[in-house]
Amino acid sequence: MPEERNHRSVILASIRLSLGAAQPPASIAAEYAAVPRTYAQSSTLSRHALLELFTDRLLEYDAGVYHRTAEAIPATIAEILTSRGKQGLAIPAGLPSEWLPASFTFTEADRFDVYQIDKTQGILTACTVAIAETGSIVLQNAEAQGPRILSLVPDYHLCVVFADQVVATVPEAFTRLEATSTLPTTFISGPSATADIEMTRIKGVHGPRFFDVILVEQA
After folding, report:
1. How far apart are CA 206 and CA 157, in angstroms?
2. Partners of 124 in the beta sheet?
3. Judging by beta carbons within 10 Å of its beta carbon (0-12, 13-18, 19+), is residue 81 exposed, middle or buried?
4. For residue 3, is pLDDT > 60?
5. What is the CATH number of domain 47-216?
6. Could you tell me the sign of the dihedral formed by the alpha carbons of 97, 141, 209, 117, in that order?
7. What is the DSSP letter of 197?
8. Residue 112 bridge partners (DSSP)
9. Are 73 and 99 contacting, i.e. CB atoms less than 8 angstroms apart?
10. Which residues are registered as beta bridge partners of 123?
């Protein structure tokens, strides 16, 4: 019986906390700081091994990966769009104009509604950070990345990731996100896919069915 009362107290305390009627902020912060953090928070991988791991994860998720230098970004975008049979893409405000090949049409879409975005041939964005261990790319509502809707509605997403944006672990990514933690944030791990109870895999339910990454490295 005492143990049951203890569990009941814990549950009720959690409810009061969620309602803002429990511990003062300083006490909550101290409790959070006391949580053991024995999980891996960094990696000993070399930069080359780190990028190899990131690439392997993306390929496992059925994403396309293109290793290029910064100077080759426009030509690579043209190459990818040609192979995908696309005449152009939607882009967020602030995307570097020097990335865009002249032979394709790029339309700024930050103010598009869901119906307009759905009619585009896809989206081209930058990112805030990428995580090698999980093969994830993190987008925020920021310059060259745009509102969340841009990465969730289109059927195709092409993302430019610079090598120095790739970290090994999730904790490292959150450290980089601290300064912009109030911005809407999306974690992407390859093309969207899900499976129903009969294990029929369906792509494109929660985001793009097709996802390509240009990984920009030093020349």
Report:
1. 13
2. 158
3. buried
4. no
5. 3.40.50.10420
6. negative
7. T
8. none
9. yes
10. 90, 157
User: Is there a contact between 176 and 169 (Cβ–Cβ < 8 Å)?
Assistant: no
Distance between CA atoms of residues 31 and 58, nearest Å: 37
**What is the location of CATH 3.40.50.10420 in the chain?**
47-216
Residue 207 has a CB neighbour count (10 Å cut-off) of 19
Element (H, E) at 78: helix 73-84
Strands 193-195 and 156-162: unpaired
Helix (H) or strand (E) holding 136: strand 136-140
Q: Any idea what DSSP says for residue 182? A: T
Contacts of 120 (CB under 8 A, 6+ apart): 89, 90, 107, 109, 112, 154
Over range 11-25, report the average pLDDT.
Answer: 68
| pTM, entire model | 0.81
Question: What are 124-166's pLDDT values in tens digits?
Answer: 999 999 999 999 999 999 999 999 999 999 999 999 999 999 9
